[in-house]
Amino acid sequence: MNRIIGVLADPPVGAAVRVVCVRGDQVVAEGAVAAPDGRFAVEAVECDWVVVQAGSPWLAAAVVRPAPELRVELPDTARVTLRAADPPHGARLWLDPVRLRAFPAELETALRTHADGSVDLHVLDLPLTAGPVDLRLQPGVYRLGGGLLQVRPWDAAVALSAVVEPASGRELPVADGEAVLDIVDDTTLDLVLTR
Questions:
Q1: What is the pLDDT along the chain (195 residues), one digit of tens a residue?
Q2: CATH of domain 78-194
Q3: N or C, which end of the chain has less CB nearby within 10 Å?
Q4: Partners of 188 in the beta sheet?
Q5: Residues 6+ apart with CB under 8 A from 3
Q6: C-alpha 124, offset from chain centre
Q7: Domain chopping of the chain, boundaries
Q8: Element (H, E) at 142
């Protein structure tokens, strides 16, 4: 076993930060940045890459080659505000990167894979509340979905049906309850969910 020790410069406030070691296309070890100053240590077998990933309400990731003492910096993020008028109780939002800028495409599966072989359904899964949902997202292309499953016969299924940029009035295409977002700068998006 090797011990990978590092520090994340300027760790994001209020976000869980995950550290994973990748060999080939497999996550072989994982840990977390637990110290407020960004220090971390992961016990790992030999690995090719170390991925540091900030989670909800952030989605940002950086990758470095393993070394005895690592210093990692997350890329700049855009402030994204999602708003929904009167969402149904229990509704959820999910957000998955399709292609992050400044991050290798071949390592994007590491953002949702764990050392035990399990895979997260979504990279970000959040409750959709009546107030705005504020996120910090690394620039890139994302798939946004949202809704409420019909679990009991008296429940009603609800799905994302429209995404509007209020600044421009532009409506983004939505298909099967999902929209593709190209995040470049700060933005606000209004979401519509229908039965």
A1: 578 888 999 999 888 999 999 999 899 999 998 778 899 988 877 899 999 999 989 999 999 998 878 999 999 999 999 999 888 888 899 999 999 999 999 999 999 999 999 999 999 999 988 889 999 999 999 999 998 876 666 566 788 999 999 999 999 999 999 999 999 999 999 999 887
A2: 2.60.40
A3: N
A4: 81
A5: 41, 42, 43, 44
A6: 4
A7: 2-73, 78-194
A8: strand 140-148
| CATH of range 2-73; options 1.25.40, 2.60.40, 1.10.260, 4.10.410 | 2.60.40
What's at 98, amino acid-wise?
A: V
Q: What pTM does this model have?
A: 0.90
Q: How far apart are CA 63 and CA 48, in angstroms?
A: 10
Q: Tokens at residue 72, please? A: 């990692």
- The residues, ordered by sequence, that sit 6+ positions from 153 with a Cβ below 8 Å of its Cβ are none
